[in-house]
Amino acid sequence: MNAVSLPCRVVISRMLMTLFFVAAIAVKPGAMAAPDILATADWAGRFVHEYDYVLRETEGLARENEPVEITLTMAGDAPDLWRDHIRVVALTDGDNGFLTPHQVMGETRAGGVEQPDGNTPHPATSINIIFLANCPARGEVMYRLFWGNPESAAAAPLPSAALVDGLRITGEAPGLTVENNAYHIELDPGSGAIRRIRTTFQSNDTEMFYKKIPIHFGTDIWSPGQSWDHDYDWPKPPHQKVEGGPLALRYHRWGPMQRYSDVEISITYTFYAHVPYVHVSSTMRIMQDRSSHAIRMGEIVVSHSRRPSANPDPEQEESPEVFTHYGWPDSDGNVVQREINAYRNELGQASVEAKVPGGLAVLDRDIPWVAGYNMDEHFGLATLRKNQFAGNYLGRPTPQSAPCTYLGQYGWGFVYWSRPMVYPLGTANSLLDLNTAVAAGTFFGTEEALLTFKPSKSLDAVRTAHRKFTIPLRLEFKGTGPW
């Protein structure tokens, strides 16, 4: 059964009505009048809890609108209205500051259920919030978090503010369209995968696309003689959930794959206002022993279908070539840039020294980032890698079969990069072109961002974005206990 009990359009509308936002810190200086300063000391007795959330910048990079997510907790079974009684204040001095936009994300209630031994966990209700933080390079900022409105509090309404220039969300899941000041993204109306992306700074009305299927493959697997199975093969996600609103929108999809019911996957997209990337987390869980030729995650595929003159196929459809170049960092941190069409053989395949035909590059599985871009039209898309995990929760072996990052151009009408978790050691049709036995209990997970950017010769926008994404503002946690 689908996990969404209401149409996702209704869920989004309800979020818009119940959450509070302001734009004071989310817009660039000069875009609006200075925010009103409030004295938080005047809020004495209005909240059950408050906490000074101190963030420090450690990389020498000024941060603007960096997403920060934190879990807030109430003891017991908190009333539903506590979602409305959360405020985030950016302190300017002492107890004075200004309201900062925040987004409520999800809620969990646990504990309080009587146990057979008579020891009952204390009940708790927890909720996540997201806000966008600004911090100078090597600096420190403090956000005072308030939550929980006691029944005895005065009835005067708490201040709130209007959102300016947030996410523009249209459609109904899975076919949502999400826009901010950096991108226009369409999700596939069947599977919910990212289908098309257009940046707001492209010179012409071009798009990043791959014919009629999505360009982002969160997970895929191939077990010949079965056919490939991808998350985009879902005619409809087995389960899905949309939460959030115009400051941050989160779309979850999960369940068994369409063709391989013993493989369970999840893909989550989080979109933010004023942020040029989409946060992506993907998981894959193998439920039964499976003979697999390839297991891949984090794949981007775009059209690139100019027919080679030496082997034209008039029945093969041509379409624009989306990217002109690939880029990635080498072991010294220098940027390697490869012009895609400079390495085509007479069949249209990539032809690179010491690589099999079709392979533009074979990189480390944990290469920090990979970018594809169009230098003529001035747009690009990069995968920023943050975390990956491969293991087995049943004590079985974890496959270590040729994990890598693969960049390909086969002359079949597309170019791509992917992060194989399982690949054969041998080239196609060789004696080592074998399936791998993957044990039940094997689990793969990745966390990354899809960044839209304007390319330059140095790709500085990608390098800087990767540092900010993987080394975020540090919470100055003071510590508690001992317990």
User: How confident overall, as mean pLDDT?
Assistant: 88
Determine the CATH topology of the largest domain. Answer: Beta-galactosidase, Chain A, domain 5
Strand residue percentage: 35-45%
Secondary-structure-based class equals mainly beta
Please report the first level of CATH classification, the CATH class of the largest domain: Mainly Beta
Rg is 24 Å
Summed up, the domain count is 2
Structural write-up:
This protein is mainly β. The chain has two domains: 22-162, Immunoglobulin-like, CATH 2.60.40; 168-470, Beta-galactosidase, Chain A, domain 5. Helix content is 5%, strand content 43%. It has two helices and 30 strands. The strands form six sheets. A nine-stranded antiparallel β-sheet has the order 15-16-17-18-29-25-24-21-22. Strands 1-5-4-8-2-30 form a six-stranded antiparallel β-sheet, with no helix packed on it. A hairpin with a 3-residue loop joins strand 15 and strand 16 (248-256). Residues 1-32 have low confidence and may be disordered.
Q: How are the elements arranged and paired?
A:
Elements: H1 8-18, E1 38-39, E2 49-56, E3 63-75, E4 86-93, E5 96-99, E6 102-110, E7 124-135, E8 140-147, E9 168-170, E10 177-179, E11 183-187, E12 194-199, E13 216-222, E14 229-230, E15 239-244, E16 248-256, E17 263-272, E18 277-286, E19 290-292, E20 294-304, E21 325-329, E22 335-339, E23 359-363, E24 369-374, E25 379-392, E26 405-409, E27 413-422, E28 436-438, E29 442-453, H2 460-470, E30 474-475
Antiparallel strand pairs: 1-5, 2-8, 2-30, 3-7, 4-5, 4-8, 6-7, 9-10, 10-11, 11-12, 13-14, 13-20, 15-16, 16-17, 17-18, 18-29, 19-28, 20-27, 21-22, 21-24, 23-26, 24-25, 25-29, 26-27
